[in-house]
Amino acid sequence: xxxxxxxxxxxxxxxxxxxxxxxxxxxxxxxxxxxxxxxxxxxxxxxxxxxxxxxxxxxxxxxxxxxxxxxxxxxxxxxxxxxxxxxxxxxxxxxxxxxxxxxxxxxxxxxxxxxxxxxxxxxxxxxxxxxxxxxxxxxxxxxxxxxxxxxxxxxxxxxxxxxxxxxxxxxxxxxxxxxxxxxxxxxxxxxxxxxx
Length: 196
Description:
Blueprint: H1 14-54, E1 58-60, E2 75-79, E3 89-94, E4 97-105, E5 110-113, E6 119-121, E7 124-125, E8 145-146, E9 151-155, E10 173-174, E11 178-187, E12 193-194
Antiparallel strand pairs: 1-2, 2-11, 3-4, 3-11, 4-9, 5-6, 5-8, 6-7, 9-10, 11-12
């Protein structure tokens, strides 16, 4: 019978053991740092989503009803608030869509719009520097009208194409439909600005 003779195994030197230990320690520290970084990024992302959802929703504009103030594709930030004044730009839900319009009149106000598109609130001509063209637009209402309590009368800045409170299809907006007030345009970067 052939008997195998065991081979001598070369044992690593102390230097090789020290190098291997250092390599393993480095890998452990690297994995720990990577794990900590990933956890921190997840927490930051969760906090950002929470803030965006609860306090500062971020939306992308779709459509032309708010031109020239906002254009299709603009990205805006809203702030959740319950304080809306004439001229504020607001986002609100209508039939599972989020629409952007300008507050024209609040609860109890009287609104009148003439054939040229001049808007009167409580008998006074509304100063609308944000408009490029005035128009009566699409309406099926008899003016003057009074805004019911707890509701708002809203209109788009592009009066010829905007479907808004002038149409009974949308009508008056209830306060609980309103998501918030538009405060900032953040995209495109060349047009970052506060919205008024």
